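Minutes, structural biology subgroup

Action item carried over from last meeting: produce the structure token record for DUF1761 domain-containing protein (Mucilaginibacter ginsenosidivorax). EB confirmed the sequence was re-checked against the source entry. Recorded below for completeness.
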Amino acid sequence: MNPNLINWAAVVVAALSSFLVGGIWYSPIMFAKAWIADNKLNEDDLKAGNKLKIFGMTAIFSLIMAANLAAFLADAKTDLAWGTTAGALAGIWTFSAIATMSLFELKSWRLIFINGGYSLVSLTLMGAILGAWR
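Output recorded by EB:
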């Protein structure tokens, strides 16, 4: 790893991309209804959440994930293909962690695939951005 090869603008864009993916993934056109149902939530529960805390902490964690992935990709040979592959591998890793915790929490397989799938897609896109934007 060569920290001088980390493109911090790409890290920020990669972190922001997780918001784009999440906005689509957890929207009514995709998995919102199933996610709400399997978490045993309702619209009032969602409205009661502290949006500043939720989105602020999500931004921080997204930046940490993107910076961490960028550190692993900080090599002169990194390109779009390797960035995408590394992001997908990181996504499989986090999918597995989500699945493990969710099984102990007695969550449904549908919820495991919704949340794990988001992680897989989001990290794959992050890796693609970081790999392409050298």
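Discussion: The first helix runs from residue 8 to 25.
Next step: EB to file the record with the rest of the batch.
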